[in-house]
Design brief:
Largest sheet: 5 strands, parallel
Strand order of the largest sheet: 2-1-3-4-5
Order of helices and strands: HHHHHHHEHEHEHEHEHH
CATH superfamily of the largest domain: Glucose-6-phosphate isomerase like protein, domain 1
Radius of gyration: 22 Å
Shape: elongated
CATH architecture of the largest domain: 3-Layer(aba) Sandwich
Strand content: 5-15%
Distance between the termini: 50 Å
Number of helices: 13
Mean pLDDT: 88
Low-confidence stretches: none
Helix content: 55-70%
Length: 277
């Protein structure tokens, strides 16, 4: 696992001081080569030994080893020539595919198979599944609700918080709320998640791998990694990670029970026979 991915994966289990070090490294990875352990400690107002212990806890011999590993992971492949202007679009396309692949790999690393299997199991047993996506995640949530319906799982996609609140008021044990939000900071969504748990329903959150309130209100959180300094690329990596997680859940549901595949095929055939227009 790459060092920055490892830091993100273990951040939530760290102490307060360790999280401060982790956050500084994640936010300043490009500049880390210029920081000694003493300078890093001084910047954070902590002891140098805390920096050393942090590095060793991650499996490195010390801070220089950690710093070298981060720099090495961020170094471009050797031998890359400066592209001509006409080659730039293709280079950018190739870079995007590589970054998406890395985002999916990192997302797999921070979500253990047991977590996905648990989410698939409660979705498969649910009386009904309520889905909502914040901002751009709404389209993704709607598409997944459609897939669940094809498998014979009662699912309802909500476009706004008011309708979701009305649905939650009638929920009971065995119902599931799947909330997808990149930031996980929407106050109304967090309140609705809390209300769902008060109704004895299960809440599954899907957010970026950051500390956020929605995760705190969920029974289980699936985390998405997809970080890039370019503001136009980072959302694409996040969406790629979200789709990867949802695709894995869909496959688990399909393969969990033999009759689901038969239901899927029957529903797909019915849709195919519907008149167009």
């Amino acid at each position: 696992m790459k060092p920055l991915t490892k830091i993100r994966a273990e951040r939530d289990s760290m102490s307060a001081i360790e999280r401060r070090i982790a956050d500084f490294i994640l936010e300043n990875a490009q500049l880390l080569r210029d920081y000694s352990s003493q300078q890093l400690a001084a910047a954070l107002g902590i002891s140098q030994s805390s920096v050393v212990k942090f590095s060793q806890k991650l499996g490195y011999r010390g801070y220089p080893d950690l710093k070298y590993s981060i720099a090495e992971a961020m170094t471009p492949e050797p031998g890359a020539a400066v592209p001509a202007a006409a080659e730039v679009p293709e280079l950018m396309s190739g870079d995007l595919w590589r970054r998406k692949s890395e985002a999916e790999s990192e997302t797999r690393a921070i979500n253990p198979p047991s977590a996905l299997e648990y989410v698939a199991s409660i979705l498969g047993r649910a009386n009904r599944v309520l889905l909502i996506g914040a901002t751009e995640d709404s389209t993704t949530a709607r598409a997944f609700a459609y897939r669940l319906a094809l498998l014979g799982i009662a699912s309802v996609h909500h476009f706004d918080y008011a309708h979701l609140g009305a649905s939650i008021a009638g929920c009971r044990a065995g119902d599931v709320l799947l909330a997808i939000s990149e930031t996980g900071k929407q106050t109304a969504l967090c309140q609705l998640a809390r209300a769902m748990r008060e109704r004895q329903g299960k809440v599954v959150a899907m957010t970026r791998h950051t500390s956020n309130p929605l995760r705190a209100h969920a029974d289980i959180a699936l985390l998405v990694s997809g970080h890039d300094d370019r503001p136009h690329v980072a959302p694409l990596l996040y969406q790629s990670g979200v789709q990867h997680l949802l695709d894995r859940l869909f496959v688990l549901l399909c393969e969990g029970r033999g009759d689901r595949l038969a239901t899927l095929q029957a529903n797909q055939e019915r849709i195919r026979l519907l008149p167009e227009g």
